[in-house]
Amino acid sequence: MDAARPIIPSGFESASSGEGAPRATPVMEQYIEIKAANPDCLLFYRMGDFYELFFEDAEVAARALGIVLTKRGKHLGRDIPMCGVPIHRADEYLNRLIALGHRVAVCEQLEDPAEAKKRGGKSVVRRDVIRVVTPGTLTEDTLLNAKRNNYLLAIARARASVADESRFALAWIDISTGEFRIAERDRAGLAAEIARLEPGEIIVSDALYGDPALAPYLRSLPAVTPLPRDVFDAATTERRLAVYFGLATTESFGTLSRPPLSPPVREAQGATLAIDQATRSNLELARTLSGERHGSLLAAVDRTVTAAGSRLLAQRLAAPLTDPAAIERRQDAVEFFVTDAQARAELRARLAAAPDLARALARLVLGRGGPRDLAAIRDGIIAAAGIAAELEKRGELPADIAQSARALRRLDPALAHELGAALAEELPHLKREGGFVRAGFDAALDEARALRDESRRVIAALQARYADVTSVRALKIRHNNVLGYFVEVTAQHGERLMAPPLNTTFIHRQTLAGQVRFTTTELGELEAKIASAAERALAIELETFERLAAAVTAAASAIKEAAEALAVLDVAAALSQLAVERHYVRPLIDASLDFIIEGGRHPVVEQALTSDGAPFVANDCDLSPPPSMASGRIYLVTGPNMAGKSTYLRQNALIAILAQMGSFVPARRAKIGAVDRLFSRVGAADDIARGRSTFMVEMVETAAILNQASERALVILDEIGRGTATFDGLSIAWATIEHLHETNRCRALFATHFHELTALAARLPRLFNATVRVKEWEGEVVFLHEVVPGAADRSYGIQVAKLAGLPPAVIERAKVVLAKLEAEERASPRGFDELPLFAAATPPPRPPRASAAEGVIAALSALHPDEMSPREALEALYALKAKAAEGDR
Ligand code: ADP
Ligand code: MG
Fold first, then answer.
1. Is 427 in the pocket of ligand 1 (CB under 6 A)?
2. How far apart are the C-alpha atoms of 104 and 828, rounded to whole Å?
3. 752: Cβ below 6 Å to ligand 1?
4. What is the number of the ligand 1 atom nearest to the C-alpha of 615?
5. pTM score, two decimals?
6. Sheet with 677-682, side-by-side order of all strands
7. How far is 281 from 279, CA to CA, in rounded Å?
8. Average pLDDT, the chain
C-alpha cells in the first residue's frame, strides 16, 4: 500500500486555454516525448521521492506488482491512470518486473527543481532516461543471483551461411563480470548452448525472429528481444568492437559508462562436452526436474566459499572439457589441495572473507557503484595479496595455481592504501547519502562538516534562547522538507507569539490542529548556512568518490584478472575439499574409448543416503572396447522396478561429467577415454508444458541420439519404449539397440524391463547383459542394488506391488493370472531368435547428382537477402554465377 502516492502535486492538471479542448501540460508533453523514445519499456518516471508510471504502463505495473492504481490529473479530458513506487524500494519492484520479463526505462530528474524554477515559473525539471533495465544488463546484487552468471546472448546467422543456412554465430557477455565469448554452432548446437548458458536475455535480429524455421523455438525461450537487423550488420558491429577495445586500452575516452569487458574468447566447437537440454534436465545437473538447486549435481558438489567460485564451478559443470591435457591441468590443481590440507584450509579461510571483486568492479566502471563497492575493491586487493603470499610459501605450484598467484601479484597494493585512507568505517549504501569519506582525509571536507555540525549546535542554542525570550518551555525548533527549519509551539502559546512584541521576531507560517509554526530571520539565515555547508561537504565527498572510482577503473583489467584467479583457486580448493570429504579419486582421462569405473557411486544419491545413515552400494562399469574390437560396449541392464537401474545408469554419466570438468570422482578407480557428446533419455517423460504426448517426446529424443551419436559419445537410455503398447515398445527398443551397436557404435547403457532384449547379447558381440540383484526372502523382494553380469530371471512386479501396499486380494489374483500367462508362453514361445539380422548399416542409395540448375536453385533458396550486407549479396551473386558455370562444363 505504501506505493500509492498520497499527495498530488500540480503539473499534471490540464492547462486550460480558457475555452475549447484542454491541451497537454508541459510535464505531460515531456512525458509523452520520453515515452515515445522508449516504446517497448515500462517508464519509471522520477517525481521527487517516487518513480511514477502512467497510462498503460501504470495498469501493467499495478497488476504485476499488486500495488494501487490511482489517477493523476487529466490528459485530453480523460483521467490519467497512475501508480508509483518509492525510490528506496525501487530495486525490489524492478526485480519483480524484470523477473516477469518486462523491460524498464528509468527516467531521472537531471537537475534540481530549484534550477528549473530559475528558468521561469513554468519551466519543467529536465528529465531523461539514464538506463534501460533489462534482464541481461543487470549489475545490482539485489537483482542478481550471486551464484550464477547472468548472460546477454546475441544470435545471428553466421556469415558463411550464404552457403550453409544452418550455421549460427553466438556472442555472449556477462556485464556484471566482464566475461565475453563467441562461438559458431549448427542448429542443434545452438539449442545446446542456450541450454548450457541459460541466458538472462537473448537478442536476435528481427529477420531471424521472423524466420519460420526458427520462430517457434525462439518464441519458446524466455526474454528474447528482437532488434532491427542493421544492429547486426557485420561491418558495423566489427567496427563497433574495434572502437570499443581500441578505446578501452588507451583509456582516453569516457570509459566510465562501458562495462569492463574482456576481449572476446572464441569457444571452438568440440572443445567442450556437448550436452543437450533434455540430457541436462534429465541428469539434473544444475537443478532438479522440479526446478530446485537442492538435489542437483551442482548443489551436491559445490563446496566453494565465494560467489565468484560458485559461478565458475557452475560454468565448468555446464561445460566439461574434451581435451585430456586441459582436464589434467585442472586435476593437478585439485590434487595439490588434496595433498596439502593445510594450504587448503588456509586458502579457504582467506577466500571466505574476500568480497565479490568482479561485480563490485563492474558497477564502479559502469558508474553504478557505491561506497561499499570501493570497500570491496580495497578488501579484495588485501585478500589477494595475502593469498598470493601464502601460496608462494608452498614452493612448487601446479600450473593453474601458479598462474593464479601471478595474477594476484599484479594488483597494486597502493590502490588499496588509497581506498583505505579515504573510506570511513561505516559506509552508506548510496554515495548520495554521504558520510563515507573518513574524517581527517580531506581538510576542506572536514571544514565543511564542522560548519554544518557547528550550525546544528547553534540551532540548539537558538532554541534555548527563544524558549527563554518567549517563556515557552516547550518551544522547539524542528525541520521538515516543506518548511525547512521552523519554530513550533503548542496552540495555547501560539497567540502570544503572534501578538506584539514577539510578532516582530516570529513570523507565522502554519497553524495545525495542535501546533503553530513560525520562522525568524535569524533561523532563515542559519538554515541557508547549514544547507550550503552540507551541500559543500557532499560535493567534496562525491568528487572524492569519482576520483577513487577512476583509479579503480584505471586498474580494471588487473582487478578483473585477480577476481578470476580467486575464483579458479576457490574451485580447485572446493573440489579437493569435496574429494577428501567424500572419498573421491582422480580419474585417468585419455584419448582412448575406454570407460572403466570401479566401485562407482551416484554423487547425489550417495549423499542423500549417507545423511540417512544407509550405505550406498558401489558398482563397477566397463564400457571399453572388448579385446580386439574397435568400439565400446553397450550394457543392457535388466532388473525389477526399484532395483537401482536408473541410479546406476546416471551415476556413470555423472562420473563422466565430473571427470571431464576436472573434478575427482566418486569411485575407487576410474579411467575414461574422453567423451565428446553425452545423451541421456528416460522413457515416458512427461512434457505437458509443450503439449506433446509423452511417447512422441520419447521418440523425438531417441531420434536425436540415433542421428547424432558417434563413436566417442556416451548414451544413457532408460526404459525407452515404455510409452506405448508392449509389442510396439519392444520392437522400437530392439531396433534402437541394433542401431546403436551397428551404426552409432558408441558406448551406451540401456536399462529395460523387456527381458526379451537380453537375447540380443548372443548376436551382438559388444552388447553385454547386466542385472541388478535382488533376493527373494519369505515371499518378499530384498533389493541388493548390486550390478552383476547376466539377465534378470523375472521382473518381481507382483512383489514390488505388494511392497507398495496393493490389497492382498489383488496380489493373489495377479499371481494366478501370471501363472497362466507364463504357462502359455512356455507352450508357444515368441521366437525372437528367428528375426533377420539388423541391416541398417547400409544407407539408402543416394539420389543421382543434382544438375547445376538444381544446385543454383538450392543455393538461392538458402539466401537471406534481409540479413545480407550489399557486399555479401555481391559475393553470393558471384558464387551463384560460378555454380551455374559448373553446369556448362
Ligand atoms: P529402478 O530404476 O531400477 O527402478 P532406481 O534406480 O530408481 O531403481 O532406484 C530405486 C531406489 O533404490 C533409489 O531411490 C535409491 O534410493 C535406491 N538405490 C538405487 N541404487 C542404489 C545403490 N547402489 N545403493 C543404495 N541404494 C540404491
Ligand atoms: Mg528406473
1. no
2. 72
3. no
4. 25
5. 0.82
6. 274-275, 677-682, 714-718, 747-751, 634-638, 767-777, 780-789
7. 6
8. 86
